[in-house]
Specification:
By secondary structure, the chain is an alpha/beta fold. Helices cover 33% and strands 27% of the residues. Strand 7 and strand 8 form a beta hairpin.
Length: 365
């Protein structure tokens, strides 16, 4: 059995302004290593038996996706099969969404592409902007999920919570463990602190990872059951797509008629085939500068320093230089990020308001 990676790369990542911005959202940036986040997403599958990766993105990002994913394909493919000329020649399939319609239609189109590779294809759906530090634990969870998916289930990963997070949605498991997975009982929206604390004590709740494993055919069957019009239009848009080199351009007239929805709302909250595999692998969605600070290596003053930076009498701060030297003196608990698009100076206590700045910047364009 080969797993077909489906990488979702439609996010804007505006909470990481000014670095994540415009045509360079966070998934295309090397935020936690020398590889970009979308490259890390594919590389962490290295060693698993893989089919040809499929990436879903907007038209404006097609070339950067092709370059970044293409540059790491050999490393991934060579571990999944013989290092011969045929393996070296494999390129990703890049599905171009003419308009954003959320995750469910994009995944449906990707499932159509996966079925072209293998009529019994099992897909691994991964957002392109997550951090996972324990790759062996992640791969083991993927293997368990794949085995469960082969039995006709739609599997999501529940992240073992380490604190009562109010910024994540949750999934609730039920029943007895069966070969590494549990029955998916329900999805829960981002809770207040009191509820989040109760979820942590309960033990049956986990953070919603946004990652999934299932047979492409099973997902499409469930989408046809719960969202028949979406399924029909997504399939039609793929069938009428124009193939341009490595790019699959979904038919814009058909795809634009879809009423967009997330995979959670469209399928996973309604299906009776949902299963949850627990994942404890150092996961983070790096949704803000404070989150990136939390997971990054710190110096003796508890600062995270990146780029050309001079920091004097400064503590507990995230400071990232750009094309020029950034000097910070006598500050604590701040975020300073310099880029070609702007300079951010903020207290970490108010860093969530960066999204407001990003919205105001959009109005200036």
């Amino acid at each position: 059995m080969k797993l077909v990676p489906v990488i979702l790369s439609g996010g804007a990542g505006t909470r990481l302004w000014p670095l994540s911005w415009g045509n360079h959202p966070k998934q295309f940036l090397p935020l936690v290593s020398d590889k970009t986040m979308i490259q890390e997403t594919l590389l962490r599958l290295k060693g698993l038996p893989l089919g040809t990766p499929i990436v879903c993105c907007g038209t404006s990002h097609r070339f950067i996706v092709a370059e970044q994913i293409g540059s790491v394909m050999d490393a991934v493919i060579n571990t999944a099969g013989p290092a011969d000329a045929a393996a070296q020649a494999v390129r990703p399939e890049i599905i171009l969404e003419p308009v954003p319609r959320n995750t469910a239609p994009a995944i449906a189109a990707a499932c159509c592409a996966a079925l072209k590779q293998d009529t019994d294809a099992v897909v691994v759906v991964l957002p392109s902007d997550h951090v996972i530090t324990d790759v062996p634990a992640f791969q083991q969870a993927v293997r368990v999920a794949a085995d469960t998916a082969c039995k006709g289930f739609l599997v999501t990963f529940g992240i073992v919570p380490t604190f009562p997070a109010t910024g994540y949605g949750y999934v609730k498991s039920a029943g007895q463990e069966d070969c590494g997975s549990y029955t998916l009982e329900k999805f829960v929206e981002k809770p207040c602190l009191e509820k989040a604390e109760s979820y942590l004590k309960d033990g049956s709740y986990a953070w919603n990872s946004g990652m999934f494993v299932f047979k492409a055919s099973v997902f499409l069957d469930e989408l046809k059951r719960f969202k028949p019009e979406m399924a029909e239009l997504a399939i039609q848009s793929f069938d009428a797509a124009q193939v341009d080199a490595d790019f699959i351009r979904l038919d814009p007239d058909t795809f634009s008629r879809i009423q967009g929805d997330s995979i959670d709302y469209a399928v996973m909250e309604k299906t009776s085939r949902g299963r949850v595999v627990s994942l404890n692998a150092g996961w983070d969605d790096v949704g803000s500068w404070s989150a990136l600070y939390d997971i990054s290596k710190k110096d003796a003053d508890q600062n995270v320093i990146a780029g050309d930076v001079i920091a004097l009498n400064t503590t507990s701060s995230y400071i990232r230089g750009g094309s020029r030297t950034v000097a910070v003196i006598g500050l604590d608990n701040v975020v300073v990020v310099d880029s070609d698009d702007g300079l951010l100076v903020a207290s970490k206590d108010h860093i969530q308001d960066v999204k407001i700045i990003a919205e105001q910047m959009k109005k200036r364009i």
